[in-house]
Amino acid sequence: MGRIWKAIYLIAGVACLLSGYHSLTPDSNHTSDPGWFLGTAAFSVGCLFPIAVMAYARHRGVKKFYRPSMDRQPLGWWNDTLQPIRVTLVFSFLGFAGACFALPHTDKAGAAMAWYYGGAALGSFIGERLVYRLFAKSISDRSVPAPAE
Fold it and tell me: Which of 39, 49, 60, 66 falls 20 to 30 Å from 76 in CA-CA distance?
C-alpha cells in the first residue's frame, strides 16, 4: 500500500505545482484581487489551525501522534493528525512555488494571489513548527506504530 500512496502524493504534488502556476497565468482570467486582508487571514489560519486540530484530537482521546510518512493516507485529521498537517504544508508550498514561476507574467491581481499563496504556505509552516513545539511529549519518534508483540 505504501507504493500507491507515494505515487498518489507524487501526482498530487505535481498537480499542486501546475495549479499554482496556472492560477496566475494571464489566460486564467482572474478578476478578483484577494488583497492583503485575505493574505493575512490565510497566514493566521495557517498558524492556528494545526494547533486547534491537534488539541481537538487530544480531546478525542489520541494519546500518541506519529510522525508523517509517505506510506500513509492523508485524511486522518482526528486520529493521525500530523500526517494531514504535513501534507497541507507541502501542497501549499508547491502551489506557492508554481505561482512564483508564473509571477513574471502576471498582473497586480496575480501578484496579490501569489502573496496569498505565500501567506498560506508560511502560516502552515509556522503552525506545524508550533505543533511540534507545543505537543512534543505526545509525538512519537516513529512514523508508524510499533508492531504488536
Answer: 39
